[in-house]
Amino acid sequence: MMTEAGIDLATIMEKVGHEDMKTTMKIYTHVTNKMKKDASAKVRTLYKDALSNLIS
């Protein structure tokens, strides 16, 4: 939920009081369908921009 909202791991770690990033990652970094869709959209944009730069 927090990673889906775009909150970085270091901030999550501090907020929940974890000293070990592995614990934070295990609990708070589940990949959701929304995150997959957002990542796909970002990759499409990167490729589209790269192709546009090659052509122009």
Largest sheet geometry: none
Percent in helix = 55-70%
Q: Which strand-content bin applies to the residues? A: under 5%
Strands, total number: 0
Report the radius of gyration as a whole number of Å.
Answer: 16 Å
Instruction: State the end-to-end distance.
Output: 40 Å
Unreliable stretches (pLDDT < 50, length at least 5) are none
Provide the domain count: 1
Average pLDDT confidence is 90
Shape: elongated
Secondary structural class: mainly alpha
Secondary-structure element sequence? HHH
Number of helices: 3
Structural overview:
It comes from Virgibacillus chiguensis. GO terms for molecular function: DNA binding. Residues 1-41 form the Tyr recombinase domain. Keywords: DNA recombination. The model has no long low-confidence stretch (mean pLDDT 90). It is built from three helices and no strands. The chain has helices spanning 9-16, 21-28, 33-55.
Q: What is this entry, summarized?
A:
This protein has 56 residues and is an all-alpha fold. The protein has three helices and no strands.
Keywords:
single chain, 56 residues, mainly alpha, 0% strand, elongated
Strand-helix topology:
Elements: H1 9-16, H2 21-28, H3 33-55
Helix pairs in contact: 1-2
